[in-house]
Amino acid sequence: MIKTKQVALSREGLFAALWLIGINFLAFLWQLGSTGLIDETEPLFAEASRQIVLTNNWITPYFDDATRFDKPILIYWLIAICYKLMGVNSWAVRLPSAIAAIFLTCLCFFVLRKFSPVNPFRTALLGSTLTAFNIHTYLWAHQGVSDLLLSGCLGGALFCFFWGYAVRSKKWYLAFFVFSGLAVLTKGPVGIVLPLLIITAFLFYVGELKAVLQEVPWKSGILAFLLINLPWYLLVTLQNGWNFINSFFGHHNFERFTQVVDKQSAPWYFYSLIVLGLFAPWSVYLPLAMVRIEFWKRKFWSHHCRSEQLGLFAVFWFVGVFLFFTIAITKLPSYVLPLVPASSILVSSLWSEAIDKAAKHPPRGFLISIIFHIILLVLMTIGAINMVYWIGSDSAMLRLAGLLDSAFLPVAGTIIWGVTALLTLFCLLYKGWWTRIIWVNIAGFAAFLLFFITPAFTLVDQVRQLPLREMATVIKTQVKPHEKVMMIGFRKPSLVFYSDHSIGYFWSLDQAEAKEYIQKIPKDAAPTILLIGQPSEISQTRLKENEYQIIAKKDPYLLVRVERVKLK
Predict the structure, then answer these.
(1) Interval 407-416: pLDDT, tens
(2) Helices 286-293 & 310-327 angle (0-180, nearest 10)
(3) Is residue 483 domain-shared with residue 420, that is, in the same domain?
(4) 3-class DSSP state for residue 71?
């Protein structure tokens, strides 16, 4: 009997390992570095990290000869280390994000396997899969920016806290402080403020706040937190003084929370749409999953064993992240990325319980959710059919619609989501099959990643980014010693990264900042300037055709050389 159980457990462990390897490879490692950096944010991180390697200054990040204090140093360090190991390329830039996503997916599996009250193994498989198979995680795991790293650190902190809370373990509480410290080193104060708000609200609700305050190893925890953060924050302040304090704490933290920064505003319901779209199709089950928890029964939950409170903790996790960033004035889709693990726990637990009950017909709440699920799949199918009309009028992607059509991607997307919708409907109508809907949609999403998202990324890269990389190569070979390069009409930081040359970005040459930039060019610099922009932008400079030399044309960009005196 014992031997049979051991064999079953070993088979279970092997299956889990293969499953996790498969979903993580497909979602996060497949074609990770096959495309170039994506403007406008990713090249900023990539170039600042490259400057760390070139200058050996591991304290102050720089982009284009200017300090970059948008984010703390951890993401730059990790990319720089990847450069050292793998060379300077897209793979190295994105690998930290991919590793953070893999860590989060695996940790979700182990937490659910340990604490899920309903069929822990199946729930863990579902929860980890939903964490990986959603557009929200996929998009940011394929970009070398700080968002997925923050989500991984916050997820690690909250998962470790719950593990420590459930088993009353000081080492897991200590791990919470470590991951919170890494979160602060990734994106600033939000890395500790947000998890503390979530945890405090949860503990107060279940009446465990006083007990946990006594259990937590505060001295060792705070020491670990400070050892992770204090050295860099002190050193960067010593190197840069109030320039760092005002820029990082003032502009990029306090102002982003209290006012609109960089025109990144949105209505109060913005994140409802983001969660619905980027966690689709699983997002339609979130309301039912929360109702299933019966979170309003405070007395019921306060008498529950700690290890059985994971579902309630996930509700506080989800609501905490959602409300925190809804209150914040500056809004971006990536801000609510940290609520994905909580969403996965809730939805996977809901479905696992439904599969265990094996009812012939779905309960009313489930039926309503499935109907909305089918409607969402139909809308996704219609969206795929008409995707070429959703591209917009971006002048840098005018050829994209034709390429998508020639690659039959609208057809592929329509087939994938159309078949998924039909199979979902079939499972709903066929007696006793409705619990298979979750597996049907997991298979549909896997097909979506393989046959739609991956080739679509490649085509977008060819149209939007490849011309910039080609133009950067021309700049690198054609620029004269001490010759300035200016881009007008757009800000594409990938030019700096791929050309390894400083570039001045301006909306037009009539801009006061552009005139000042030209006037400050030293007299002993090259008498000419390289201008890059679209033909319409070049024509707006009021230069005659005989007053500049065309160096290269990479649709839709034009690179010309013009004498400096003609621009004054």
Answers:
(1) 899 999 999 9
(2) 130
(3) no
(4) coil
Q: How many structural domains is the chain composed of? A: 3
Question: Cα separation of 44 and 494, whole Å?
Answer: 8
Burial grade of 110 (CB within 10 A; 0-12, 13-18, 19 or more): middle
Residue 48 belongs to a domain: no
To the nearest 10 degrees (0 to 180), the angle between helices 340-357 and 310-327 is 140
Bridge partners (DSSP) listed for residue 533: 558
Does residue 280 lie in a domain region? yes
**Residue 165, CA atoms < 13 Å, CB-side half-sphere:** 28
> What's the domain range around 158?
2-32+97-352
DSSP string, 213-252: HHHS-HHHHHHHHHHHHHHHHHHHHHHHTHHHIIIIIIII
Judged by DSSP in three states, 559 sits in strand
CA distances from 448 to 155, 180, 388, 455, 468 (A): 26, 34, 17, 10, 28
pLDDT tens per residue, range 96-113? 999 999 999 999 999 999
Please say whether the beta carbons of 140 and 334 come within 8 A.
yes
**Which two tokens mark 467?**
């011309």
Q: Kindly state whether residue 62 falls inside one of the protein's structural domains.
A: no
∠ CA 48-492-546, nearest 5°, is 130
Q: What is the pLDDT of residues 535-560, one digit of tens each?
A: 888 877 777 878 888 999 988 899 99
**Bond from prior residue into 563 cis (ω within 30 degrees of 0):** no
**C-alpha span between 207 and 71 (Å, rounded):** 36
Query: Is residue 10 situated within a structural domain?
Result: yes
